[in-house]
Specification:
By secondary structure, the protein is of the alpha+beta class. It contains twelve helices and 13 strands. The longest helix has 23 residues. It is elongated and about 125 Å long.
């Protein structure tokens, strides 16, 4: 044995010479039998890959080549050992990466520039069922057009598509060097259902607020109009879109220092309903005002409700006819 052998397996010459690989703990009995059988059948062994163990217990990958050699009139087995540990590590890494699409719980597909399905992982079953195609077959015309457009533009894009009652979001990733397009899908059916339910709630809420007979509006924690019904907009004399998102104190500086400012801040800070009557600072008309602090739905604890509060103001019956801006500027 040469110095390279001793360095690889971490033995000294005195420790290794005269002992078998089994005695040194380098080889396992099973692989040693396989090598012996290969040598017996073919008279030589070429590139037999296996694991071996060093003196310190470290695993190394080796490639063994064995042949008969006559030395001093006696036959001996000449063994050449090549350390392939780094190569095997790279191969294992590549194998792991290659398995990733197959193990992914979301659909991953590849379509060639000609529109043929080149790859589809196991999670793509619903997609393939809807398409009615399998590997090396043409995908539907709509998707061939999507692939062609993506390769032409060279830009990754996303789109939502319906499949078998579900909704999938796809990232369309063109690979010009292929040329092909990778499709990375994700089932967003539940998300879409939640969005639809939220939309229905918001619609019902808006319809309910619009049904309120009195002027009604909401102010967020930054004192911006978060909602205003049509009756309030008409009463104020400004379009709803002109008011939404605007700060009430900036729109109506006349309110600064007024009783209404005091009552609004009291409701916002103390989190209590407030009811009062006041004369408008602009139109000299009396109004009945009801303020209801409401915790924002995003609050996670009661401590945050004051900072995230929305203050809803409703105006009841007034003592004099209502006119533009009279009820807000009160």
């Amino acid at each position: 044995m040469n110095d390279a052998f001793l360095a690889l397996f971490e033995f000294s010459g005195e420790e290794a010479i005269g002992r078998t690989s089994l005695e040194l703990g380098i080889a396992d009995n099973e692989s040693r039998k396989e090598v012996a059988l290969e040598l017996e059948r073919h008279g030589a062994v070429r590139g037999f890959e296996c694991k071996r163990t060093t003196k310190t217990g470290k695993l190394v990958y080796v490639s063994l080549s064995l042949d008969w050699a006559e030395i001093g009139g006696e036959k001996h087995i000449l063994t050449i050992i090549q350390d392939i540990t780094e190569r095997k590590k790279v191969e294992e890494h590549l194998e792991h990466v290659a398995r990733f699409p197959a193990e992914n719980p979301h659909p991953i597909l590849r379509v060639t520039a000609e529109g043929a399905l080149a790859y589809a992982n196991a999670s793509s079953g619903t997609i393939l069922k809807t398409w009615g195609c399998s590997l090396n077959q043409q995908v539907p015309q709509e998707w061939r057009d999507i692939v062609r457009s993506a390769l032409k533009d060279g830009v990754t894009r996303t789109l939502d598509k319906h499949f078998d009652g579900g909704v999938y979001a796809f990232a369309i990733v063109p690979i010009a060097s292929g040329p092909y397009v990778n499709l990375y899908g994700s089932d967003i059916t539940e998300q879409k259902q939640m969005e639809a339910a939220l939309h229905r709630v918001e619609r019902d809420k808006a319809e309910f607020l619009e049904s309120i007979e009195d002027p009604f509006y909401g102010l967020d924690r930054e004192w911006r109009y978060s909602y205003i019904n049509e009756k309030a907009a008409v009463f104020i004399g400004k379009p709803q879109q002109e008011l939404l998102g605007r700060n009430v104190w900036e729109l109506f500086p006349q309110l600064r220092g007024s009783q209404s400012e005091q009552q609004l801040r009291k409701a916002m800070e103390e989190r209590i309903p407030v009811h009062y009557e006041v004369r408008s600072v602009i139109k000299n008309s009396w109004t009945e005002v009801h303020i209801f602090p409401k915790a924002d739905g995003n609050d996670r604890s009661g401590e945050n409700q004051v900072r995230r509060a929305s203050t809803h103001v409703g105006h009841g019956k007034h003592r004099q006819p209502r006119d533009a801006a009279g009820e807000v500027l009160c």
